Amino acid sequence: MKFRLKRLSRKKRQHLIPPIQIHVQDGKFEIMGMGAWHSYWRDPYHLLLTIPWIGFIILICTFYITINALFALAYLIGGDCIANARPGSFLDVFFFSVQTLASIGYGAMYPKTTYANIIVTIEAMIGLVGIAVMTGLAFARFSRPTARVVFSRVAVITPHNAMPTLIFRSANKRRNIILEAQMRVYLMRDEVTLEGQFIRRFHDLKLLTNQTPSFTLSWSVMHVIDEFSPLYGMTPESLTQTNTILIVSLSGLDETVSQVVHARHTYGANEILWNSQFADIFHHTPDGHRYIDYNRFHDVLPLDLEE
Question: Residue 93: its pLDDT value, please?
Fold first, then answer.
């Protein structure tokens, strides 16, 4: 049986997914260009949503000046077609284009030929569509819900109720309430199947508490390492050898804006500390009140193994 290789057309090749570069840095897998605004250059809508604000403003100004300059050239081609405009003056027809595009209409200059009225009609339609699109994009950028959730820089493995337990912290920096907050933790590592095939596998870690009705201050997330845990029998060396990482995903309803917000964090193998514990951040005042010291939120203490 003979097989003939078929050469893909240029149009079909453009729809293929380009090669993705992945490298490991500080125990974490990083995809080159992942989440970068310039990676959306083939998707204009996402590009305009992810580009920094300064770039968004520069892009709008550039488009605005360019479109008015093009229409100014169109008016110049028509000759003396704008009343009260100096013949051959680019500035006069440019500012007339600005007035037309924005539907200002001061009345000092106006079209006086059929050619000019046709160009004005086209520009007015483009102005209406352009204002609607730019207003929608600006509103979409402002209205995107964001979560200001901070995670501890490291996770620790420490005894809890006589069981080795993976623990990390999270806190709500906005001081409002995230309703029905849910926490999911995934372990991702290199594995080899019984058939000898290499795979990158995800494991869902079971948490002692994976949701809370109101996430206001801080949350210590715990996973017990028992015989059913993917971390059972693992060591710091095996975590590094299998390129293990923890992916944390938090979602909930922001009470202020009544929208779902998301936050994520990743822990590499070198950010999982063994035989360590977090410093206590809950303290009591002399009058009996309790307070949280966020200055020690990331502090880790060595575990006294002699106790």
Answer: 93
